[in-house]
Amino acid sequence: MTTASAAAPGALADRTPTLSGEEIVRHLVPPRQFETATLDSYRPDRDYPSQGAAVAAIRNFETGFTATRGSLFSRRKAPAALPGVYLDGGFGVGKTHLLAALWHAAPGRKYFGTFIEYTALVGLLGYAQTVELLKGASLLCIDEFELDDPGDTRLMSRLLSDLVASGTRLAATSNTPPNALGEGRFAAQDFLREIDALAAKFTTVRIDGLDYRRRDIEGHAVVLDDPAFEAAIARQAGTVTVDTFDAILGLLASVHPSRYVRLVEDLDAVGFRDVHSFSNQTDALRFVAFVDRLYDAQIRIFATGTALDSVFPHEMLAGGYRKKYLRAVSRLIALTSGAPE
């Protein structure tokens, strides 16, 4: 893998990331920005009581874990309790923080990953081996639950059912409540049985509020002219890459999204030259997945051309992936803001 220094930035396009099933499993932990997340460190907005209620709901769900001797744990028997909790709300209301806090509090063997990481794991290991690997875990956390195609709907429904049968509890976040998954993306009525089966496993907790990333940041992604871009790259400490925006899009098309985490590994900042708006929704969705990995790793972005919060055209923002694009915009504003290190 190519590395770079601030004095001589390399290119992301030169990287050829690989990721085995075992490596995916090692990555099934909260992103580094949530390594110390707790329920006490979550700061609910008092203007939105549902945020405080969500903390209480997670604390209540947490009581389902009880310690016995040594490192052995069991669940309290609560016949009316569902095996999963589902945090539904807009982007930037702290859903991932709460999910990570629950993961840290849970005992025993546990996993935390994105929806795409779990589906990629099945693709690499096969279904039976994935179930064998994950079953018996105390908790499985799924961040940004997505159902962009019916095949993944069926796969995750079956996987979660098998894991619940092994005693695993579930926690998930999404921008869409479980009984509306797939709405506006594909013919949801054709897969209603699978979607309803998922919904029945979760207690849904609604979280309202404002995007915390934009409370202290004025609302546009920072765009630089060429001299400012060069100066910012030169000042940035650590490992930096510089690519044209088109080179990035070409790279993302050649790498499975499950490997994006390895693509950005060890980076401190990335530079994008000649950013432009999207004309292809497939490119746009790949870029959203890439932005998620940059945000998880808190990698700074420097960019020239079109402001990164303006790359998704109106027709895309008006479509079924609106919430995904708006989440990416929020994160792009955060990652391009602030003084370079």
From TrEMBL:
Pfam families, alphabetized: AFG1_ATPase
Keyword Cell cycle assigned: yes
Molecular function terms from GO: ATP binding; ATP hydrolysis activity
GO terms for cellular component: cytoplasm
Any GO BP annotation: cell division
Keywords, ordered alphabetically: ATP-binding, Cell cycle, Cell division, Nucleotide-binding
PANTHER family with a match to the protein in the record: AFG1-LIKE ATPASE, ATPASE N2B
Name of protein: Cell division protein ZapE
